[in-house]
Known about the structure:
The complex is a heterodimer of chains A (621) and B (192).
Chain A: E1 3-5, E2 10-13, E3 17-35, E4 47-48, E5 54-55, E6 58-59, E7 65-73, E8 83-89, E9 107-111, E10 117-122, E11 131-140, E12 143-153, H1 156-163, H2 169-187, H3 257-299, H4 307-348, H5 359-362, E13 373-381, E14 384-394, E15 401-404, H6 418-439, E16 445-450, H7 457-466, H8 476-500, E17 514-522, H9 528-540, E18 546-552, H10 565-570, E19 572-574, E20 579-583, E21 590-595, H11 604-618
Parallel strand pairs in A: 1-10, 15-18, 15-19, 16-17, 17-18
Antiparallel strand pairs in A: 2-12, 3-4, 3-7, 3-8, 3-9, 5-6, 6-7, 8-11, 9-10, 11-12, 13-14, 13-21, 20-21
Helix pairs in contact in A: 1-2, 3-4, 6-7, 6-11, 7-11, 8-9
Chain B: E1 3-4, E2 10-12, E3 23-31, E4 48-56, E5 59-64, E6 76-78, E7 94-99, E8 109-116, E9 126-134, E10 139-145, E11 154-163, E12 166-176, H1 181-188
Parallel strand pairs in B: 1-10
Antiparallel strand pairs in B: 2-12, 3-7, 3-9, 4-5, 4-8, 6-7, 8-11, 9-10, 11-12
Amino acid sequence: MTAELVRGQNHPLAETRLEIRVSAADAIVAGATLGDADGRVAGARSVAHPASHRLPGLEVSRQAAAEHRLAVDLGALAESVHHVNVLLALPDGAGGPARFGAMAAPFVAVTGLDGTEVASYTVTGLDSESAVVALELYRRQGGWKVRAVGQGYAGGLAAMLRDQGLEDAMGMAAAINEAVTQGVARSIAPPQAPAASGSAPSAARSGRVSYRHPGRQASVPVAAAEPAAGAPAPAVASSEPDRPAPPVAGDATGWTLDERLYNQVWGMFEDLARSAAAYRSAVDFAESRLERELDQVLSDPLTRVGPAADAARDRARAKRTDLVEQARAVLDRDLAQLAAESEVVEHALPPAFARWDSPVWQGYQLPLETPLALRLGDLHLPERTDLRIPMLVRLPLERGLWIDSGRPSGPEAGLVDAAELRGRAMETAVAHAARLLAVHPVGDFTVQVIDPAGAAGAALAPLLASGALREPPAPGAQGVSAVLDRLTRRVDLVQMAVRGGAADSLPPDLDTAEQLLLVNDFPHGFDDRGVTQLRYLADEGPSVGVHLMMVADRADARAYGPVLDPLWRALLRITPVADDHLADPWVGHSWTYEPSVVPQGSDVLRQVLWQVGQARRAYGL
Amino acid sequence: MTVNLSKGQGISLQKADGGTLTAVRMGLGWQSAPRRGLFGSRTKEIDLDASAVLFADGQPVDVVFFRHLVSDDGSVRHTGDNLVGGAGKGGDDEAILVDLQRVPVHIDQIVFTVNSFTGQTFAEVQNAFCRLVDETTGQELARYTLDGGGPYTAQIMAKVHRAGAGWQMTAIGTPSNGRTFQDLMPAILPSL
């Protein structure tokens, strides 16, 4: 567990071999001084700095960088050493900021050799200082402790070293700066490296999936296999001075890796939407300009015919072609970058976000907590159909799902007949339900099915066989009303309990797990009362953990007229086959949605459900 | 190094080392009206708005302002509406970020404007400025002081336009009148 220190706070150190990680917004110098019992630094040989980077029990890096790892072995320090001061300084004349106030607060952390953080400290409150003592490690009663110091010096390194009792502070500061300047000259050599990560070893890339932030240094040696190697190279790479950095998974903000991945996927979604918008608007503009220019040629009697007119037309067409080609080149660059990112990200996704054919499902284990979001399928644009963005929705579901078994409007319209479509819709629904069951902890999620005609028999088999669904849905209208009554009662009771603040007085037979109500063949078997109850569940259910998944063809419920429109609108419509009906929230492109289905011949769904069923039985559910 | 631009002066956005800029920020800052008197809250606040209009071949194609914070292509972003201005500390109260690499190829000019949404003229606003900052390094490239404070409610600040492979910025500084950028369109067109 990490102790986040504030200035002046201390924390005991259990281990003697430690690493001190430093990260800053710009290149800085990191060093350390060794002090005696009075805190005085004896001489130049007690200072570890870029020019003399190794002392017994202490090693610092040899150049200025935004990231540092200082290795400390407290056991190997001389007996006389009682204090180790970790200091940070801004290099002179390196073109970076001249004071700490001009950059984001540096961060230091004491970690074990395995990388676990023991204590961390963000050095805040600095302004005109150009050198700072960040941490102090000191002996206390036979052990060592760390203290967050944060003492800054406007006079720079020289003032700091003088304060620590070093005789030739000026000379030492000059020597450090000299060494740093040489180091800078060494490290800036590759011009394409971004300044902030100039010191990060570019060879450090993990096998296929890199969870590493591009600015971090790798602590373990890893096989060098370029994740982006399989992706097509950007079409305009040669004309670009700096290739974009290879993408890494989890390169977004968030508290957990899942949240970072979720945000990254949404970031990719937005970037793709906007890149496509840029391309489409450029092409539209090129077309309209061509039209205008051709009109101009035509409207002037002098230029309407003859070689001049032809030349003008050719010019106009060439301008159009030019612009479209440029736009395409830019789009291809963006798409290549996103494709490379997608390649990396797709492999790093946890089960809830992953495709059914992802290897993580083969190594599936029962989760201990509800995930952040759920993958419903893939989205893509016609500009590049193989670039799939995972469609992730937050859990618990805010809206019910409607799997439309009616005629699709998309590219696959007409390829499947109505009966097959219904079958596929039910299979898709079962795959979604199975995924929901699998990603929730055991006992936190229950599936109920309404299928009055028994039309879904075969599709429900995996749920029934594994025991995830206890009994086949009761046939006929009685089955419908029994399930609806039970869920309506549950919603009603939980709502009352929540409003009254009496969550512990719910009846003991009430299932507190999240409920998914899978309705097949709506409105078959529903009377007016049933329809009203269903609408009640759709409106009130999501806030108290009752979710609706309808497999329905809207045309079947035509007889109800506009009364049911609010119900359909309240549900998120997805389809069992690819269909371009979903719009993104930024520019409103129509995206082709493809449901996440279990690949043909794959046993993964049955295996996962079997595990879920075993666990449910073990829990006595 | 900062360039104080005067009207009509242009600067190239090529970096000193020959590389081109990739991201710039147009910042707008002004001082809020000083509080005075017993009912200080009744002091009229001043709301200036920064907008960016994207032109292709002389036609407005897209606009980024407080009701449309991101251009459809995502290359131009507004950081959000500030209704009262700062305390005169010299920081940006509204900013528009332009990712020059991602600007669609047909966009050849981006015009930045400032409007007084609440209707006060620039004579009543203090310490208003517009500046252009290199977003990657935080360095200020150019600053345009909104003084001359005549009886105007709007100003067409500057334009960033394509020049060869890179971009160039030209200060315009034409005063005008209007509540939002729409009112300025006739005044913008001559300066394209």
